[in-house]
Design goal:
The chain has three domains: 66 residues, OB fold (Dihydrolipoamide Acetyltransferase, E2P), CATH 2.40.50.140; 197 residues, Rossmann fold (3-Layer(aba) Sandwich), CATH 3.40.50.150; 142 residues, OB fold (Dihydrolipoamide Acetyltransferase, E2P) (Beta Barrel). The strands form five sheets. Strands 10-9-8-11-12-13-14 form a seven-stranded mixed beta sheet. Helix 1 packs parallel to helix 9, helix 2 packs antiparallel against helix 3 and helix 7 runs parallel beside helix 8. With 462 residues, it is of the alpha/beta class. The protein has nine helices and 23 strands. It is globular, with a radius of gyration of 24 Å. Helix 8 links the parallel strand 20 and strand 21.
Length: 462
């Protein structure tokens, strides 16, 4: 047990870390009188702010603490509108003026490119939202061991904040969530205890199509619904009476130790096991585990930008890597001669095929394979693409995939990224193959968080 007492000090925020928290450095003397650096992480602060902070164990090299008082404010600081902001781990930047957030995201993309030797002037200003609230079409809430439903506390996945509202989800999604929370309390249904691995209710997933209005409620539990017939009947009645837009009410059994929204058995309580959504005029079926862009307003901008920057032509062949359920594939397919989509998740490929059929698109081929092997197989059967697009996960495509793309030599590449750092590393791999970066357009899909998406184009030098 340390005998070092907590110490109150004044710190100036110098930068923000990857989680959006303020970073400060305090120089102190150690017991020998030599200078010693203390690095502080102070959430909910902004660059340039001077804050008073109390640090437990100040003799350590790194500590995290909340500010006791903001002594000098950044002029871009605003009052966060959500009552849960100071505790909730969902949004980290509600205290920051939206224009300031956008500028920081642009700078982040530029810094990532500078780190790989690219010209930062190729980066355009980040495209924001006219209204950066109520933008999410999917939320996952968690039950506490006592049955309360809410979101994780910031930095503490053992603590659940009971939900009163959520300003980034649609109002109807929040109302439906509150109804499920009330239902659980009325029937004294206990939540899942992660430490003891016991309890009934684990998560509630809520999805809503902003285009069709359809809602999905997916309840994750450790037992089958027939173990609680009265409670289940009441849930079905409540939902049908109060939320006619709910077209899919699911009870999903999940007994795994991992704290994820997965299912071993799927029970349909009412409606169908999917909802319909639309993007760029195309209809998609969304199941509980379907990956689909969670900000439909900005996702439409991504699609528009990818098409505008990729310049697809009716005479061309195109490969869509990491194609998912065909979010980009379908709009591009109507503009090229032939399109081949590659995705490692088989259920997504089945959905992509079904979505193409539903929309009367017949010039697509979809392959369930990892990206690198999928490119090799598709080049043999499909032929050489003039246009290639990729939308990899946050970890990026990786050097092997990027070099395989380089050897395939498509004339133009459209890269949609959700991580500027892995994006910059990936496209660096294309330089030896003769590719030039043309433009990078950041797009803000997640206001009040650190995340930023990009659409970029690269051209093969003649």
């Amino acid at each position: 047990m340390s005998n070092i007492k907590p110490e109150t000090m004044v710190a100036t925020i110098e930068e923000l870390d990857q989680k959006g928290s303020g970073q400060a450095v305090i120089w102190r003397e150690n017991e020998l009188g030599n200078p010693k650096k203390l690095r502080l992480t102070i959430p909910q602060t902004l660059i340039g702010e001077k804050v008073k902070v109390t640090v437990d164990q100040p003799d350590r090299r790194r500590r995290k603490a909340m500010a006791d008082e903001i002594l000098e404010e950044n002029p871009e600081r605003v009052a966060p509108p959500c009552p849960h902001f100071e505790r909730c781990g969902g949004c980290v930047w509600q205290h920051w003026d939206y224009e300031g957030q956008l500028k920081h995201k642009t700078d982040h993309v530029k810094e990532a490119l500078i780190g790989q030797g690219f010209d930062p002037e190729l980066v355009r200003d980040t495209m924001g939202m006219d209204n950066p609230w109520r933008y999410r079409n999917k939320m996952e809430f968690t039950f506490s061991p006592v049955g309360e439903l809410g979101l994780h506390e910031q930095g503490n996945f053992r603590k659940i904040i009971s939900l009163e509202t959520c300003l980034i989800a649609s109002e109807e999604m929040v109302e439906a969530t509150m109804e499920v929370a009330d239902w659980a309390k009325n029937h004294a249904l206990v939540g899942y205890n992660k430490d003891k691995h016991e309890g009934l209710l684990r998560h509630l997933m809520v999805r809503q199509s902003f285009a069709t209005g359809e809602l999905m409620l997916a309840l994750f539990a450790t037992e089958a619904p027939d173990a609680h017939p009265k409670a289940v009947d009441d849930l079905v009645n409540r939902v049908s009476e109060k939320f006619p837009h709910v077209k899919s009410l699911l009870w999903l059994e999940n007994t795994a130790w991992a704290d994820r929204t997965q299912a071993e058995e799927i029970h349909l309580l009412s409606g169908r096991d999917f909802i319909y959504d639309e993007m760029d005029g195309y209809r998609f079926r969304l199941w509980f585990d379907t990956f689909f862009q969670t900000n439909p307003t900005q996702a439409q901008k991504l699609v528009d930008l990818a098409i505008e920057m990729g310049q697809p032509k009716e005479t061309e062949k195109m490969i869509d890597l990491f194609c998912g359920v065909g979010t980009f594939s379908l709009p591009f397919a109507s503009r090229v001669g032939e399109l081949a989509g590659i995705e490692i998740v088989e259920s997504s490929i089945e959905s992509a095929k079904r979505n193409a059929d539903d929309n009367g698109i017949s010039n697509t081929t979809f392959l369930a394979k990892d990206a690198r092997k999928g490119i090799d197989q598709m080049l043999e059967s499909f032929g050489h693409p003039q246009l290639l697009m990729l939308d990899p996960p946050r970890s990026g495509a990786g050097g092997k995939v990027m070099r395989r793309i380089g050897r395939a030599k498509p004339e133009r590449i459209v890269y949609v990224s959700c991580n500027p750092d892995t994006f910059a590393t990936d496209i660096k791999e294309l330089e030896p193959f003769g590719y030039t970066l043309d433009a990078v357009q950041p797009v803000d899909l997640f206001p009040h968080t650190v995340h930023v998406e990009c659409v970029a184009t690269l051209t093969l030098n003649a």
